[in-house]
Amino acid sequence: MSAPVALALADDAPAALPLYAVSPADLAALRESLPETARRYLDATDFSAKAQQLVLLPGAAGLSGAVLGLGDSVSAAAIPPDTPPWAFGDLAFRLPEGTVWRLVPGGYDPGRAVLGFALGAYRFSAFKPPSRPPARLVPPAGTESARAAAEAVIMARDLVNMPANHLGPAELADAVSALGKGFGASVEIVADDALDAGYPALAAVGRGAARAPRVAILRWAGSGAGPDAPLIALCGKGVCFDSGGYDLKPSAAMLRMKKDMGGAAVVMAAARMIMAADPPVRLVLRVGCVENSVSGQAMRPLDVLATRKGLTVEIGNTDAEGRLVLADLLAAACEETPSLIIDCATLTGAARAALGPDLPALFSNDQAWAERLIDAGKTCCDPLWQLPLWADYGIWLGSPVADLNNIAGNTHGGAVVAALFLERFIATGVPWVHIDLYAWNDATRPGRPEGGEAQAARAIATAVGLRFSGPATGDQTTGDQKKD
User: Fold this and answer.
1) For residue 220, what is the enclosing H or E element?
2) Which of the following is catalytic: 94, 207, 249, 378?
3) Active-site pick, 123, 237, 258, 323
4) Which H/E stretch holds residue 422?
5) Under CATH, to which class is 148-468 assigned?
6) Is residue 80 reached through a cis peptide bond, with omega within 30 degrees of 0 on the bond before it?
7) Is the fold of 17-140 the same as that of 148-468?
């Protein structure tokens, strides 16, 4: 079992108060089912079941329950009901401190309710406790995958939110080791001379930092997976802080660069959900743990680097380091001929300019897998949006002195160009998906507090589960302008 993660979820509590969640269409039926005192109080407060509307019901002991409005955007006729988890995402701090609640069945999905409640209760508390403890929820039977998803997302949020002086390459590699230990997986840490030999481009990125780079490799097999079971390869960009190198970022662009290891956190969260669901697959997770700094040993503009695949790369910009990290990881993943490779990275500001902060950009050489991931994202409210691998732009990566440059000679289509660079390191015939994400919430919304976010992790786990073991993995239903 994995290392515990603090959740605002409670074990079965006989004294837990009832929490009703209702859409306007179902309000009349709920009203008739309530005791007269509660019904009258609901009428007196003009409760209309608007989204996020919350009424606390009085009782003989002071408090007898609560009613949450779901709004008109939900449909109890949908299968499963299409209530998003975020409908429940602000309850933990709106319900009274110290109270414990149980869900009353209704026209919503209880798994999504559990997920939204748990994710909304999250606050990064490594250095400062929350202003008050959250209320707690007793998760109904059958919502175990929602709890596992919440634990994985919270693990990733903690990693992204951790200040860079507390989370360097060694600490990120240790986090991969802890994840593997929790699920009985093997973990190998590649460092020093072995890293120079096996991951030369990644090693070059980290050479300028006082904290040495490394690669953490986790290997796991499901309890029903034989030696020929499908192999899923996950690769994550783990740049623990990105100064930009000699092409130094301006101070405003550097403020959030502790989150430049967000891709690593996301694939770790996806791996955690996959392992918790135990599908009949083999899994290999590679995290490139590195820091991009400035020193006498740092790579310079117009340096030419070797890569694991044998291609040489001219450095057009030292701030385009994430693709160098991923290049070696992807080449290593391809050597095992996996059934699927997915890489995640906070790679380009261009993806944010095109799609905004909430929509990770997806690129793929396999349309079936692209559609599986996009559909999975819709299923579990973890959206993705596909952008093209437009081959004609590949000529922009040309170099007069090396096999390719790490940037284009113009400012057009930066996310597409970065994906095309990565595609050069994918072996022919290997299905590959690249996800360029933000890994951050700019402001607090229900279920999504300001700070680190595990975008796409639930979509990845859901897609793998749906493809290889049925609709259990990661799906929370019963039946969530810089270079790189």
Assistant:
1) strand 214-221
2) 249
3) 323
4) helix 414-423
5) alpha beta
6) yes
7) no
The SS3 assignment for 331 reads helix
User: Does the annotation mark 249 as catalytic?
Assistant: yes
CA angle 283, 146, 431 (to 5 degrees): 30
For range 296-305, the mean pLDDT = 98
Q: CA neighbours within 13 Å on the CB side: how many for 33?
A: 12
Report field, pTM of the whole predicted structure over 0.90? yes
Residue 372 near residue 279 (C-beta atoms within 8 A): no
User: Mind giving me the DSSP string for 276-329?
Assistant: HH--S-EEEEEEEEEEE--STTS--TT-EEE-TTS-EEE-S-TT--HHHHHHHH
Bridge partners of 187?
218
Can you list the positions of beta strands (E) in 380-454? 385-386, 404-405, 432-436, 440-441, 451-452
Beta strands 282-292; 231-242: pairing state: parallel
Phi-psi map region of 98: left, alpha, beta (phi>0 left; psi -120 to 50 alpha)? left
Percent of the chain with pLDDT over 90: 90
Phi, psi of 291 (to 5 degrees): -130, 135
Query: Is the distance from CB of 100 to CB of 10 less than 8 angstroms?
Result: yes
Query: What is the domain partition of the chain in residue ranges?
Result: 17-140, 148-468
Q: Per CATH, the architecture of 17-140 is what? A: 3-Layer(aba) Sandwich (3.40)
Length of the chain: 484
- Rounded CA separation 73/24 (Å): 10
Residue range 102-118: average pLDDT? 96
